[in-house]
User: Fold this.
Amino acid sequence: MNNLDYGIIGNCRSAALISKEASIDWCCLPKFDSASVFAKLLDDNIGGSFGFKVDEGYSTDQFYQENTAILVTRFTKGNDVFEVIDFMPRYHKPNGDYHSPPEFIRYLKYISGAPQLKVAYDPKLEYAKGVTSTYVKDDFIVSLNNEDTYDTLFLYTDLDKTAVINAETITLESDHFFLVGYNEKLFVPHLKYASLEYERTKVYWLNWLERTPTYKKFNEQISRSAMTLKLLSYDKTGAVLAAATTSLPETIGEVRNWDYRFCWIRDASMVIKVMSQLGHKNIARRYLQFIIDLMPDKDEKLQIMYGISGEKKLTEESLDHLSGYKNSSPVRVGNAAYMQKQNDIYGILMDVIHQLLVNFSNDIDNGEELWTMTKGIVWVVSKHWREPDKGIWEFREGDQHFTFSKVLCWTAVDKALKVAQLLGKTSKIAKWEALEQDIRQDIMDNAWNEKAQAFTQAYHSEDLDASVLLMESYGFIDAKHPKFVSTVKAIERELCYEGLLYRYKTKDDFGLPSSSFTICTFWFINSLYKIGEEQKATEQFEKLLSYSNHLGLFSEDIDFKTKRLLGNFPQAYSHLALIETAINLSNVTTAEERVKTIIRTKH
Assistant:
């Protein structure tokens, strides 16, 4: 397996990654950021997994059930056919709350013939630290780790439990099930229960997706990306994760391995903006409450990221007993970037507040709190916008005056002015307009580089950076402005390699990147569309879509040469940008279609 060929299942509480051969190689319970119970993804030998062994005559096919987040892996050998249907239960209870327990169900569906398999059940609790012991009990199989940290995991099945644990050959003649859960069940589940959980979960996803608009083109990709973003949201608090994994490397064998199971204000706000455009109010409301709950004091500065339960301290440590994905160590949990200063987050958050007020103006419960936040954000920006920071790419050495950070400081004030007008609050407008003009002038004077004929990565630098492509998206500059068009062209010349983009070519703390940051290529394609190169944008977009895995999922990075997926997976950033680009390009018609339209209108 070379290409992160995994599917994701989840229930907005946790998630699991399942290989093409139906092996669960990553799962943390009871929450996304808990210690893993299966982590083969990060260590082939000791990480732990839950799969099935079949003889070499079987082929597999994997797909999502249409319009759901339920994953099916079909095993076929002539007439011998069975399916593994994987899902985490999620649906509305009669009282309106969600049923989303810390567990997953594997439904073995018998199709035909006499298929044979062995169960390979090998949980390794607490990131595979210490020894996990597994025992057969009357009602379940229990695994426990009581060396460093006491932890347990329960497996329920209607198959012979001893045969399961001993990996004995099982011949399927009917349907069966496995339920793996963090908690011992009060009532022993049976096949009918597993089937009912499946049907209810299926209905939940069908209903959820039905609220998403349909588009002329790329509808399938938009739907799959929207469901993936939903799977990366944590219902309990409203947090949105950057990705479901930790320490999947940006480059094989190197050390750019980070834990992404946290809520970055930037990533999450961009996700919420897209999801609210798609009409999903609840996820937007919950996220907004998450932010409000994080900011009890009016003068409290926002961190760039938080734990999914609102934790402010995210101490980073290495798990040296794990060899890492494809032996790319270290494996890190926690993320020291939480201490960094990145001034762009204020503009991104202000943008999402404005978006929510526009989309759901009659439906916002906390307008007063939002106005308080708006005033607080502008106050912080007015005090700090002239200061250097770490920038969007979180350089761990040295602060600079990054263009993107300055543009987003401008955005914070621009959107605050719009919010003030929406709420009928006029007393601050004159003061804020003066601040907005000061920041705009500063950017125009210092970020444009005559030699590069582009807005550059930082003030008085000749280095280019894909993030400046967002100047247009945030309304700082018109798409047809000569300086923006020139910037897009310069970035294409300098940062584009076979249709994929470098974030930048500046040597950072770890040297020149050898993989492309997926979101940057989407930004570039969007920019081509905006400056009028629609056909070129569509061709590049379709080429980029072909680099997804077999289920249409993207990670953080793509290797420039091999096009293999790298980095944490699935990546919220990549999928939100896919949706934005797809929506724009869904309106682009080919030359042939345009001619037909002209002929139709003439007749």
